[in-house]
């Protein structure tokens, strides 16, 4: 919770009463507030009615049609109103509510680049942007056919597979669905591990599709534990479990799961379930070996390690998965692997592909090759280590509690009890033009996430950590001013070692 108005000004004029909304307004609500129900004729509120003690929600703010979102007490609410729209805010019974207007309202433009330190979408390198910024061509013509054939071959590299990889015009969520409906049948049991919010969403999808998903529950502070998976699969004597679904890098909690060890469990038990791996936030950032680790379907998206806009979903498949797809009982059309594989073989797609993102993919894959995947994985580990050292030096806690599962891609940071992580993120955004990742699901408001993936270097990380340290100061969050120093010392030391290694190799 923000402790003072160091960076945020109270909008005194509306205590209690009404105020005029502006495009850059943030409200940070610390207690129940009340507002009149909208008047149907004008869309504006009627007489304000105080509420007694219930949590704040936007239902309690009269924002006019189309501007209501859920928010909890103490949360930050970004409102993008029509300029000059009126809103009412009233304190609830015995409340000490405060509404703060951020300084951004009065700020001129921020010079320099926005710091996008969320764990994806990630900043797009200029070279990739230039590749995307090309005239649209006929996706059924010979020029695109040539590009598609090349890209469909090249895209196997980050998956480390020789098998086909299909590309849907979709987000990662579409990739989840395609994987399940192509290989399973309604009523099939699938085993999933509760690594965090994305595992929870995937499980909800499986249930919605008519599968029978089962969770191995966890507190979101570890990755998928092979021992617990083994224990569960051992009990599945009749092989009713048809799939094991694991989120390789759980972007919500900042944990990475040991896929090779999970494969070994399946092999040891001779369990025939298909292994599904969500690599949406790990592909091209964390080592992943589709073929060697015997993954049956790897799901990925374009907007993270591949340094592209959102818009492409990938399924890499095994021969076993392709065989399963011939007998899978789900109806499908858009997501059909069979249609994709048949048209891809000619360099085409069954429907309009995201042509310009595919141009970008062509170049992004070249850039990844040029840096080298091993160097990329080492870079991600180094930046994650620098970030964790900063967190520890600040006296804060990393959400992932077991080093075995530390994520090279994202670090989720717990704030001390009573401090709102979203209010903190708002201070950082307003003052330093940096976006940090929000806490999702059960850790909403408790954690913020620092993304350290994709097109990132040592100085980007130091800039990001400086923004966090200054933000902690401005938001009045207790911490030691030692995080930036700790990260800098570590990165300088690593740079020295690299220089020495290169010199020795000459
Ligand atoms: C691990 C993971 N899986 C799945 C998804 C869903 O992907 P999308 O938002 O592209 O649909 C995300 C998104 O961030 C993710 O991080």
What does this structure look like?
- The chain is an alpha/beta fold and 506 residues long.
- It has three domains: 1-108, no CATH class; 115-122 and 372-505, Alpha-Beta Complex (Aspartate Aminotransferase, domain 1), CATH 3.90.1150.10; 126-370, Type I PLP-dependent aspartate aminotransferase-like (Major domain) (Aspartate Aminotransferase, domain 2).
- Helix content is 35%, strand content 17%.
- It has helices at 126-132, 142-154, 156-159, 172-183, 197-209, 226-234, 259-268, 319-327, 337-344, 355-371, 373-394, 421-432, 458-474, 483-505; strands at 8-10, 17-20, 26-28, 33-34, 76-78, 86-91, 100-102, 115-117, 165-169, 189-193, 212-216, 241-247, 249-250, 255-256, 274-278, 297-301, 312-317, 397-398, 410-414, 434-438, 447-451.
- It has a seven-stranded mixed beta sheet, with helices on both faces. A five-stranded mixed beta sheet has the order 8-20-21-19-18, sandwiched between helices.
- The longest helix is centred in the C-terminal third of the chain and has 23 residues, at 483-505.
- Residues 120, 171-173, 198, 247, 251, 278, 280-281, 301, 310 line the site of pyridoxal-5'-phosphate.
- Pyridoxal-5'-phosphate binds next to helix 4.
């Amino acid at each position: 919770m923000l402790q003072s108005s160091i960076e945020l000004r109270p909008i005194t004029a509306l205590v209690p009463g009404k105020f005029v909304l502006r495009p850059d307004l943030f409200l940070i609500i610390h207690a129940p507030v009340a507002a009149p129900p909208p008047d149907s004729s004008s869309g504006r509120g009627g007489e304000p009615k105080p509420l007694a003690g219930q949590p704040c929600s936007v239902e309690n703010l009269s924002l006019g049609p189309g501007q209501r979102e859920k928010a909890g007490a103490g949360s930050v609410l970004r409102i993008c109103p029509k300029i000059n729209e009126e809103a009412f805010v009233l304190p609830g019974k015995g409340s000490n509510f405060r509404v703060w207007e951020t300084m951004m309202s009065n700020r001129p433009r921020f010079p320099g680049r926005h710091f996008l330190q969320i764990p994806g979408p990630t900043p797009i390198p200029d070279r990739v942007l230039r590749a995307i910024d090309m005239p649209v061509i006929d996706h059924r013509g010979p020029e695109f056919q040539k590009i598609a054939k090349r890209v469909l071959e090249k895209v196997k590299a980050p998956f480390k597979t020789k098998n086909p990889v299909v590309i849907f015009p979709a987000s990662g969520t579409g990739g989840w669905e395609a994987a399940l409906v192509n290989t399973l049948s309604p009523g099939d049991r699938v085993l999933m591990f509760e690594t965090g919010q994305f595992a929870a969403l995937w499980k909800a999808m499986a249930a919605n599709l008519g599968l029978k998903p089962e969770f191995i529950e966890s507190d979101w502070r570890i990755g998928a534990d092979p021992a617990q998976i083994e224990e569960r699969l051992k009990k599945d004597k009749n092989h009713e479990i048809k799939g094991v679904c694991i989120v390789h890098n759980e972007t919500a909690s900042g944990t990475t799961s040991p896929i090779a060890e999970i494969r070994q469990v399946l092999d040891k038990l001779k369990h025939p379930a298909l292994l599904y791996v969500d690599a949406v936030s790990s592909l091209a950032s964390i080592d992943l070996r589709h073929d060697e680790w015997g993954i049956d379907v790897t799901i990925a998206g374009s907007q993270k390690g591949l340094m592209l806009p959102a818009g492409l979903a990938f399924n890499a498949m095994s021969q076993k998965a392709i065989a399963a797809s011939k007998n899978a009982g789900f109806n499908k059309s858009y997501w059909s692997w069979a249609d994709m594989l048949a048209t891809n073989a000619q360099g085409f797609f069954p429907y309009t592909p995201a042509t310009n993102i595919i141009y970008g993919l062509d170049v992004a894959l070249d850039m990844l090759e040029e840096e080298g995947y091993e160097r990329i994985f080492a870079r991600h580990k180094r930046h994650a280590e620098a970030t964790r050292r900063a967190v520890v030096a600040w006296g804060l806690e990393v959400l992932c509690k077991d080093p075995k599962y530390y994520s090279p891609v994202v670090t989720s940071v717990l704030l001390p009890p009573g401090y709102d992580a979203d209010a903190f993120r708002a201070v950082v955004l307003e003052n330093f033009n940096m976006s940090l990742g929000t806490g999702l699901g059960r850790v909403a408001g408790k954690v913020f996430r620092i993304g350290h993936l994709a097109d990132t270097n040592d100085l980007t990380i130091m800039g990001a950590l400086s923004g966090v340290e200054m933000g902690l100061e401005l938001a009045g969050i207790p911490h030691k001013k030692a995080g930036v120093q700790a990260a800098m010392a570590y990165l300088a030391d690593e740079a020295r070692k690299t220089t020495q290694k290169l010199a020795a190799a000459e």
